[in-house]
Amino acid sequence: xxxxxxxxxxxxxxxxxxxxxxxxxxxxxxxxxxxxxxxxxxxxxxxxxxxxxxxxxxxxxxxxxxxxxxxxxxxxxxxxxxxxxxxxxxxxxxxxxxxxxxxxxxxxxxxxxxxxxxxxxxxx
Length: 124
Ligand code: THU
Hints:
By secondary structure, the chain is of the alpha+beta class.
């Protein structure tokens, strides 16, 4: 697990715009070429427009021309561990069929893969 990604995911979670849920999430990923992108969740008064931290990080990378990801670290500022939502799993799987994923909270951490989180992912 990449210590730099952990540091960045934790830091970027503090930029979360989460006045409705108060649930701050940070994600950091590293590309095949070693570039790091990060993202936080961005909520909206029209709740359904909210964007998760994982997708912000991926969309930032893709929009800068990077599509091959090796590892993603996701942090939630909570004592409880959580795992990424289904929409984020599908978006992660679009770009990386075997990306490593580390999920951590203030008390716990697990290492997994997108294969484990989204078996038999939908692909065209
Ligand atoms: N959230 C994420 O950022 N990532 C996930 O995988 C699940 C949920 C955010 C969205 C919303 O701002 C808050 O957490 C509560 O759902």
